[in-house]
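writing this on my phone so excuse typos. first protein, seq and then structure
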Amino acid sequence: MLIPPPAERPLQPLPLELVKLTKRFGAFVANDQISLKVPPGTFHALLGENGAGKSTLVKCIMGYHQADEGDLVIDGHSREIRSPYDAYQFGIGMVYQHFTLVPAMTVAENLVLSRPNTPGIIRWKEEREHLREFMKTAPFQVDLDTPAGQLAAGQKQKVEILKQLYLNSRFLILDEPTSVLTPAEADEVLGLIRDKVKAGHLSVLLITHKFREVFAFCDEITVLRRGKFAGAGKVADLRADDMAAMMMGGQREARVVRKLPRERGPAALELKGLCANQDNGLPAVNQVNLTIHEGEVVGIAGVSGNGQRELVEVLAGQRPATGGTVQVHGQAYSATRAEAFQHKVFLLPEEPLRNACVPGMTVAENIAFRSFDRPPIGRAGCFVSRPAIRKFAQELITRFSVKTRSTETPIGDLSGGNVQRAVLARELGPGTAQVLITANPCFGLDFAAVESIHSQITEARNRGVAVLLVSEDLDELLALADRLLVISHGELVYETTPAQAEINTIGHHMAGH
């Protein structure tokens, strides 16, 4: 017997309240006596710097963690949630900052299998009919037959949001849901969710660092700072400065690192006729020609899924090129570890926890990946000095302001911004980089982390490092790049400088017009 999908169940918005919730990990207090109230049918923002305790708090709501103290009140009743299935039973769903899709399964399979009540034998004819009806009301379209592993980051995030819309949650937690979406896509998605809130179908708790989204879509905010409640209020009564002051604990001046005027240096990174395929064998990068000089930041803008990921993976040695050449300082470059060390090529990839780290290994071990086999850490070719690893890591942790309990903390336990800082420390800390390749370096980070990473990239450029910056954040590109190019359907279709850039023109080229 076919079990009706949750999308057919009648819904009402769910009120939720946390009362003096505390969560500890050993001696570390991640959440300290936090109270928060989301009335039914409202759009509530949860703000705070990376490491403020936001993710831990919502994981307590979802049942991944159990609070040590405090109360969770759902629909006026004290409840205990011990697993995500319990949360689902109450109508609570979450779109996570990191993707939860099964890469080998299609979009349709990921949607159907997201239901806890999926039958053992799936009648795909009926399921596809339900999915077709659901997709008619979806804010965006994704090919149901495409394996999730072949989707670009922005497309994956859309499927994550579609999953929760398909499950028709009564209370939806969104953890940085628009980080890989264009501003138009972000407005479309949040606008649709806002419509459901206003129609009385949904309550929403949004974790975001984008004040524009808060002012455009949210009714109220709650702010955390260092694991504690730092303030709350109605959005209509607050300014951006007020929110920033709650998050930072007072006013502070932003660190400014200006791009120094430089003469164009020698060519550092050259791509000639570069081609690469998607995972399914179809072309993704088509005849890309690009030269980046020493002391120059070249930015590449584009809508997610236009070949950016495949381009970066070729330069990182994670994907073979199907044509063309890559040269660093005039020599052929195939991104082996030996060549990267010889030419001082460093990488800050998208989704660093997946692409640049081993989550279960310590912060110190992850920072040592570049130098574990070289003095003073590596000795006699096969011995590793643990004290040297910890000392090296501690120096970089302090210098790059990585917030971690110790050098021995698993890097997977760190917040997204601190994982990114740790990877940046490893890549730029030694100060020997000559070429830096970075993709969406500020994905899902708060403004303090963004400021720090932008400063490090600019300082590297000022030292003469050649920087390739691939980003879906146009504001980031306009702030950092010396030259800006647009990629569409795997080809570089437009070039300008930030001083001459016209947003509408860039947008037309990004859209393929």
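second protein below, same order as before
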Amino acid sequence: MMDVLFVTPTANPNVLKESLGTMILSTILRQKGIGAEILSFAHIGDPNRYEEFFEKAVSMILEKQPRILSLYTRCDCYHIMLRLAERIKKELGCYIVFGGPQADITAVETLEEIPYVDFVCRGEGETTVYPLFSSLLCGEPDLSVAGLVYRQGTEVRANPRPELIADLDTLPIPDYSIFGEEIPVDPKTCFSIDVGRGCPFGCTYCSTKTFWGRKYRLKSPERILEELKYFHDKFGVTYFAFEHDMFTMNKAQVKEICRMIRELECKVSWNCSARSDCIDEELIQIMADSGMKWIYLGIETGSPRMQKLVNKNLKLEGLLPLIRFITSRNVRVVTSFIYGFPEETEEDMSLTLTLMIDLIRMKNVQVQAHLCAFLPGTALGEEYRDRLVPAVTQSDQAGEIGFEENADLIQAHPRLFLQCREYPTALRSKLAYFTLFLSVFHILKPVYLYYSDQYEREKKLQFYLDFVEDHRDILYGSEFPTDHHKICEIVKRGTFAKRFAKLPFGDLAADIYRMEAARFSVHYGGAPSATEILSVVPSELQSCERLEDCPRNWSMVTFARDKDGNVQTLVRRM
């Protein structure tokens, strides 16, 4: 029997990718003499094989025999954690404690509806985890702990949230020896460190402001550098992810951090998240000079009207020149968009798609898109809560695993699963295949950039709608069950190319479709020999941003498998 077992939904088997929050909590407990272990999803098995994964998780937890089972919850895994809690409570009877953002937001509702969860901890747990867990291990729960939500008889009570930690430097450096003294580490690992918390902005779709009270906090430059050096010396890693929702809010501190990084004896690189209106060319240059390799920017919408409605309030006029400057400094930019907002119109979506295409056209820019999810704790979720219905198309923000197997649980507790519901609109329904469309767009980038130029900027959504119309049997039929199957078939058939066949470069577009179909065929179990898959394309295609710029000096591109089954790409001049 052990004291505390933390279960996390971490999908990466590399222990250096474990949840930072859980790492800090386990470190605090172990420093105070309480035994703690961490069991992540990645070390249980493949959650996509859900039934097998779930039974193995139960078996591993029962083998550990924890006195306290603490489950870290997010919206994408809440159903799984609830099922685990139900099973372990039945078979072991230990204390079940929930933490993490999803349980935090739905704490009272969870205890009102779920009898097998004993406690939910809200707010930052670093100051409360030891008082609560030590009292549970003594058999006398301390019900005065700040942030604790608990039952007293049949009544659910919620203590005031704990005060936010004013000085984050007081937190311990996570102790990874919980996974053993000898941890094999790939030096190329991108290692996450907690550099601060909180965002002062109030976007309607984001729940961060609920957790951190819109209070921006950053660890001191000295402490951040201490952690960089500590983990570099301990594990040899040189690439770090600075975990903070809005790293660049305090430009003076960021500049000081960059200065100190440049003075390190060891060379390190790093990435971060920011807002485009909280960076400028001077800061970007300083960050790039200190080793920044990529930056994540949430753009969300290309419509000025929607920028105001979702309270993002970015000024879009200078966005493209800013991103162009960032990439000119050899820094990759990851941009994120959200679509399917309740008040979004086709005109708004056309503007968003126009901006996305402008970014896709740039080198060293990655474009992400996410269907709007009505997350608990967001202004958007609260505004539409009573008007939501079960989602026909699930947002990737809500997760993808185990929903079908737990549909009864999700349907029985709509207050706990707001993220699995939607506000239906005609436009949202039309956008059901938008992320799939973007996947094909990236695969056939020069072709789709060329096609997109045939549509006016204000009517870019029609580009997507024509794509859907030309692939209705693939998208809406049951013959191709997954997005992967659909994408392969779309590329293989080349149906969309026929719509543009009479354009000046229509023949070249069709050739590129055939090349990609050949590559897909070989990659996914197709032809075994070089002579069976041939496609004529310009070899310079990969570096060509515009289809009309592709030179007409043809090459023969052959995709085949070698004797070990690895896919080989051969280019032969004609």
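Residues 14 and 185 are 8 Å apart (CA to CA). thats all i got for now
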